[in-house]
Amino acid sequence: FVGVLATGVLVASGWGVQIQSFSGSVVQDNFATFFKIIFLLAAGLAILISDQYMEREECNHGELYPLILFTVVGMMLMASGTDLMTIFLGLEVMSVSLYVLAGFNRANIKSNEAGLKYFLLGAFSTGFLLYGMALTYGATGTTRVLKIAELVAQMSSPATNIMLLAGMLLMITGFAFKIAAAPFHMWTPDVYEGAPTPITAFMSAGPKAAGFAAALRILLVAFPTMQADWSQLFWILAVLTMTVGNITALRQDNIKRMLAYSSIAHAGYALVGFAAGNGTGVAGILFYMLSYAFMNIGAFAVVILVAKKGETNGNVQDFAGLGFKHPLLALAMTVFLFSLAGMPPTAGFIGKFYLFSGAIQQGYIWLAVIGVLNSAASVYYYLRVMVFMYMKSPTEDFSWMKVSAPVALALIISVSGSLIPGIVPSYILELAQQAVKLI
After folding, report:
1. Which helix (H) or strand (E) covers residue 28, if one does?
2. What end-to-end distance do the CA atoms of the chain give, in Å?
3. Where are the alpha helices (DSSP H) in 277-364?
């Protein structure tokens, strides 16, 4: 954790400085710096909540932490890459590490299943992405993002170039798998449920943000002249993803599956900003990814504490009476659920406000309306957990529950990160807007 914290300080110190390296295939700019802070935050919180869980499940192997750091390196390459091959290299470093992490608890059959499913479907989606990059190279003769933009701008009608259009669509398909957008989301609930809970928390925040970072870099820089084409596709993806995620989450009793489908819905909210494609919408994505890391990892931290050895006690009903037995822990969970639902004055509310504002500014009023309706629907399954915590009699004495110092620190950081950006959002929004201007 100390190493991640020190790296975060060094990364943040580079704000406002733009440096290119490796012949311009990697760039350090405010956009990359903002996302790198999100990745390091997700990794740091995951490390804090891992030790107690891994000891309980008797799988506290030393390779856990290097694998998390390898994943972060891959995500950083995805955010900084200005060449399609660099972005693909970062994606592979991230993905291979995540495949191992998903199946990290070798004694648990569900964890083994999660690792295998994630590997098979992840490799399948990587094929789409790589084939899309190959077609884009075939149509333009380069893998440099800025050079692609120049060549596409010189085309009289790029949307009629079948090879270029197919390449762009295949890359969008590959990224849709990585961010768990419907209808490419089917791997998410099984992998999130089966993977060790700290890894699930990390996967739900860091790699999702990395997918958005790479997709934003490619589409906003390489294909701005085709925005009218790809924004319509993201309009459809956003509606599908929000609706499918929320409707399916309504029927879940397992808390990890519920949060998995919730994660799909949150990818849909972020896609609203992508469909808008303007400064407000894209800055809203950056703000939302940062806020989502706090609230989602915090919620998974509480799930770790409520569960027993062997990942039992993981249903919504098992939270019954938590508000009476552990009021502070229940209060923290309430903050996370309110933020996930987008209730003021939390960070989730401000994030959704800017995402939907961006859509309205772009003329996508119905998209914003559908987003608000989906957000309202999500309140039901979040409130259901709160009803069990505060309005049901305890079915367990929670005698096994012990909050270690690292987990307590992670909860304090997560609660602060879920509330402060919602109460005083201007500073982070200003940073997000500065980051967007430079891509």
Report:
1. strand 26-28
2. 30
3. 279-306, 322-325, 327-341, 347-361
State how far the Cα of 55 lies from the Cα of 9, in Å rounded to an integer.
Answer: 29
CA distance linking residue 11 with residue 23, whole number of Å: 21
Task: Give the gyration radius of the chain's Cα atoms.
Answer: 21
User: In the structure encoding, which two tokens stand for residue 2, read together?
Assistant: 């100390």
Phi-psi region at 22: left, alpha or beta (left = phi > 0; alpha = psi -120 to 50): left
Question: Can you tell me the distance from the alpha carbon of 341 to that of 170, in angstroms, rounded to the nearest whole number?
Answer: 32
Distance of alpha carbon 367 from the chain centroid: 21
Beta-bridge mates of residue 19: 28
Q: Where are the beta strands (DSSP E) in 159-256?
A: none
Q: List, in sequence order, the alpha helices (H) in 61-161.
A: 64-80, 84-102, 109-140, 145-154
pTM assigned to the model = 0.93
Q: Which residues pair with 308 in a beta bridge?
A: 312
Give the residue from 260, 265, 258 showing the smallest Cα distance to 315: 258
Poorest-pLDDT segment among 49-63, 69-83, 86-100 = 49-63
Cβ atoms within 10 A of the Cβ of 20, count? 13
pLDDT tens sequence across 116-162: 888 888 888 899 999 999 999 999 889 999 999 899 888 878 777 88
Distance CA 403, CA 135 (A): 52
Of 6 and 311, the structure prediction assigns the larger pLDDT to 6
Predicted confidence (pLDDT) per residue in 164-201, tens digit: 999 999 999 999 998 988 888 888 888 988 888 899 99
Q: Virtual CA dihedral for 293, 298, 300, 306, nearest 10 degrees?
A: 180
The torsion angles phi and psi of 308, rounded to 5 degrees, stand at: -105, 175
CB atoms within 10 A of CB 363: 9
- Given a contact cutoff of 8 angstroms between Cβ atoms, the answer to whether 206 and 72 are in contact is yes
pLDDT tens digits for range 238-257: 999 999 999 999 888 889 89
